[in-house]
## 1
Amino acid sequence: MPHGPVICRWCAVFLVLTWLFIPAWATAQSRQQPKPEGAEPVPERAIAAILAAFDKYEVVAMPQDHGMRDLDDLIFSLIRNPAFSEKVNYIVFESGNSLYQPILDRYIAGEDVPFTELEKVWRKMGQPAAGGSAFPEQFYPLVRALNQKLPPEHRLHVLAGDPPIDWDQIKSLDDVLRLVHREPGIASVMEREVLSKHRKALMLFGTMHLLHKAGVTAVSIYEKDYPNVTLVINELGTYDTGLPLLADSKFVNWPIPALARIKGTWLGALGLSDFIPPPTTIDRDCKVHHGFPPALQKPVEDLVDAVLYLGPQDLMLREKIPADIALDSSYRAELQRGGAMLGFPNAASETPKEFDEQIVKTAENPIFSIPTQVRDPKGEEQAVKSCLDRKSGKALGDRR
């Protein structure tokens, strides 16, 4: 559920890599979901519960939402906890292009690597949410600094989770669809570097990569050979939002932050659409679909194991865009070119002045909110036309 300031308006188009989403966003609507039948979930203090989970599981997989500062703060507190490096060997991070893994290894090990060289790890990849986020550029230096205070046997390794693609050579959406296969790539990294060697790892990825029994997600792929080794954690997303009073929350008495297992509880009986806005998708035959695919139309307890509560849902804080990105006109232009290449409307036409004005405008509202999709017939029509054009162009090429 990645949504951050300004640059991340282009993030939705990159969901095409997995789900072929049509980006059509609107402001989140307030609603209060009914509470179904089931046992009451038992909240535990989040960091202690996550650390304890490594005693049973080889992998703890949790979201890293580009844009949610409260989640960033939890992750930073977790990895700085002295018990973390005693239990965990690897952190596998979505916001990293594995093409640059050698650079990342040298940097994390404490070698003299210029920061501009390290930036390729998250700036040269297919996720502009990462390129516009404050989290990666703090996360990597923090792990490096942490390692310098740990004995060699407890030093952490970081694995870049995105496929090894030279994005400077990607010129069109066709190149993306042909060359970028994220879920199998993530699963391969996990199997090769973590699971086959019985190492302990923290996975930091968007929720849609982590779901159990969901067909093509990375975790679902590797669980065919490595079942029951992964604890999947999700945050509450849009659930419990739009409340008139703080006291109306179902979690008002929970500690902050908290983690709760959901199997057999009323939370586990909810559907995924209670937490994540259902998408509009286009399949490979260029047909439009609304809602989650059948593999995800099940109780959420079948897809995730636990939920995070980071505090009142309507009071989450979002990241601010880092000054080094806001002031880097050449990098901003590169992000615009990427958005235009993938068909995001108006990505290339935004002027530097308009960009700066939007940054200033975002200061009016520091609250993080998850947009919800609405029907956009014109956008759907354009996306279907683009899909058909690509298919006919490919068919024509095949006949030549």
## 2
Amino acid sequence: MSEKNGISRREAVFTGAALAGGAALLGTRRAAAAEGSGVRVWDRSYSGGPPDSRALPPGAPGRDYTPVLTPGGATLPWWVVDGVKVYELVAEEVEHEFAPGLKAKCWGYNGRVHGPTLEAVEGDRVRVYVKNKLPAPTTVHWHGVYLPNGMDGVGGLTQPVIKPGETFKYEWTFRQSGTLMYHPHHDEMTQMALGMMGMIVVHPRRPPPGYRVERDFAILLSEWSIRPGTSRPDPLEMTDFNVLTMNAKAFPATAPLVCKQGDRVRIRLGNLSAMDHHPIHIHGHYFKVTATDGGVIPASAQWPESTVLVPVGTTRDIELVTDAPGDWPFHCHMTHHVMNQMGHGVPNLIGVKPGKLDHKVGALIPGYMTMGQTGMGEMSDMAMATPKNSIPMLGGQGKYGTITMGGMFTLLKVREHLASYDDPGQYEPPAGTVAALASAEDAKRDGIKL
């Protein structure tokens, strides 16, 4: 259907009627009326339009978009050759630190786990060279991207695998904008479990009203199985993931999201965990869910939340105004996803009265101490020795003591005045705005017996 003749780019599908010549000429008004009457109106294409779409001049940061930030991560460099943006991804083994005290030999890209964020603009022609320095074949699948079938990156189906030592070239024109991802589609159980994944952010060529924000963050969620004392993630694990990460870091090593009061903020969440969905929750604010990896959600269909479920293999964009100063938690609300490695496989001792157990066991294991009878929070302050290459289950230092969180947890730091977006340190609340020990005078006044 031609736009030149004023015909809509929508097709109407009518139950019980053939799509005859007259129906094929439905104009915009009739298509809209059909949609409003409850008749299903189909998108003309779910794959971004013609694959031979004409490329546009390369989009430039500052002029065409505000660069996205990957907290604790990086953006993939690019350069232009004959009007095409050129990128290079090097698949290789990387020694990665998840948090102080926990390192592992992982697989990643360009010396990083996870790989750097690939950023572009709708209409950009891109050429990505993938060099394989791994001991195994690999591919790259551009998750959610509209592209020719032979560029889709599925080993054995759409392309030969990239053998060790080989370099493959992928090339396409971005016919969409949004938050997408990349990862291998060859032995993905192993390669993704070892860290091979990254984010893709494609900015609209002509940003719609309200698209521009002061802070635009990309966060990739993942989960790992790293047994205490071992030095590699276990790709065979199916249920008990003991390291939960944001951009491949576990709290207290996650990078904070620093914002000024009144900033318009977009947070792009992607989930390439092996098995788990993640309900990501924010404190002190609400947000609206504005987009998925399928595209923008119309403003009339957006809804307010303080928690968004990010299923495996999807992205969600959320947007908010940071109008409440403070250090606000931003984390997965699966309670076992905000604890670290040593919190898994621990016996349940809630309510146990150990009696003389410590004394008796101490004769065999010097320094033995029974813990966990009243919960796990006390373990954060014990400073007990842990096995080689392992970290305690909980704990980061806060203004008022230990933060009994770990894993998929970071902080949204909102300040009234900032000279820069560097970490401003701990929040200093106004006097009288911090919960504190109740005074006898207050309790008596309000009829509370201490």
